[in-house]
Amino acid sequence: MEKYELLYTDSFANSLDTFISDWKKLKLSQKKIDQYVQKIFELVHSLEYFSDRFADVTDLYQFDQRTRRILIGRQYAIMYRVDQKSRRVYVGSLVSQTQMNFKF
What we know:
CATH topology: YaeB-like fold
InterPro entries: RelE/ParE_toxin_dom_sf
Largest sheet: 5 strands, mixed
CATH superfamily: RelE-like
Number of strands: 5
Structural class: alpha+beta
Number of helices: 2
Shape: globular
Strand order of the largest sheet: 1-5-4-3-2
CATH class: Alpha Beta
CATH architecture: 2-Layer Sandwich
Number of domains: 1
């Protein structure tokens, strides 16, 4: 089984930084934040071998490119796209599921 390359968008890094900052303001412990971030990266890294693992939400959100969604707990999601030809996974923003503004 050939491995896919993970490419994190700038919007992913920015959104993760924003959420971490918000969690700190909410007085979540550093241990809890670290556990949550670790879970996020475990789910994303699973895409290296199982790129189609999560639900296709292209029609649900009316994207013009095939897009999949990783659900993280009840509150958060990450949208990602897979380029089968180049074997790359483009990881988009971490968003609250109540947000509808997804960026890649």
